Structures are given as structure tokens and as C-alpha cells.
Amino acid sequence: MNSRYSMPALLLAACLTASCATRTLPVAPQMPPLPASLSSPCSALPLLPEGQGASMADEVLAAQEVTDLYGQCAAKHRATVEAYESARRALSPAD
Q1: Is the residue at 67 inside a domain?
Q2: Which band of pLDDT confidence, cut at 50, 70 and 90, is reported for residue 58?
């Protein structure tokens, strides 16, 4: 064998041998992180007005605020469940 070609041939043989000796390990799928907007806790509900100074209008406004906060929290919870189910389906093995 010509010495001019022997070194590249040896390097090529070494590289091919090394590449055949390696194996790829399977990577376990991981759940993606939950978005911060979905993982934050729901807001605290405001206290209802009490006492003789509280008017019916104050009570109606407080009830409306509680209803709005509940709606926001329920939407966040629904989005969290949907995101989790979507990620679970994407990571589960196909049957």
C-alpha cells in the first residue's frame, strides 16, 4: 500500500469502526413545563361589604367581582387541563 494513502485510509477505518461501536440510547419523553399563566394560583376573593353602611349596590358590585374572578379562574383551570391532556396524548406511545 502506498504510504501517501495509508494514513487517510487508517483514519477512515478508525472513524467507521468507532461509529459502528456507538449506540443511541432511547430518550424518555418529558412533559413540557406548564406556562406561568396557568400555574399561578387563583386570585383571592374580595370580602363582601358588611355592616349598616353597605348598600345593595355595593353588594351587587362585590358579587359581580366575585363572579368575574371565578370565570377567570375557571378558564385558567380548563386551559391547564387541556394543555396537560394534549401533552399527555403527544407523549404517549401510539397504540
Answers
A1: yes
A2: confident
